[in-house]
Amino acid sequence: MAHEPMSTQDDTLLEGFLALETPHGFRAELIEGEIAVTPPPDGDHEDYLSLVFEQVLSQSATAMQISGHKGLLLPAGEGKPPNHVIPDATLAPRALRLFRGAPSWMPGDGVAMVVEVTSTNPRTDRKDKRHGYARAGIPLYLLVDGDKSALTLFSEPENGDYSGSHTQPFGKPVPLPAPFSFDLDTGDFR
């Protein structure tokens, strides 16, 4: 006698997450099996992103597309449903036209770098999202940590984390490797 497949707790969590309605301006993410809802960002958060965007668009060796708040579907840790994250910025070479025709939740294939600015739950940006981006093979993860007044560039994803990291306090340049190939000036971050 055939039986209907039973839904697991992870299936129920994923279904609930995908049906979740948030207040206007809030965003919901499913990170390592937990739903995170965050309020709209403050002005400092947006100022940091603006400073990064201006330099990437004017100084990158490769022309870039930047998407703010693009949903990414990433591998999660063992036994957890896939991560559904919304980076503050997702950058890809313009020639790929990666965002054109992409679904709401796209894989990280072709993404050159993601940027996060710490906000209401910095642990998520410092650890959980970092691991998800590394598991997806995203080459670069730039973390702007306002609490620590520093930027960290994570690189070389392997085995669920980044083996390379370079941290600089606000005011010191952060070298961005290819395809960007310029030093990010953080003088205005202070």
TrEMBL record:
Pfam families in the record: Uma2 (PF05685)
Residues covered by region (Disordered): 155-178
InterPro entries on file: Nuclease_put_TT1808 (IPR012296), Restrct_endonuc-II-like (IPR011335), Uma2 (IPR008538)
Putative restriction endonuclease domain ranges (all copies): 15-183
Signal sequence annotation: none
Gene3D superfamilies per record: tt1808, chain A
Protein name (Swiss-Prot/TrEMBL): Putative restriction endonuclease domain-containing protein
Species the sequence originates in: Streptomyces lydicus
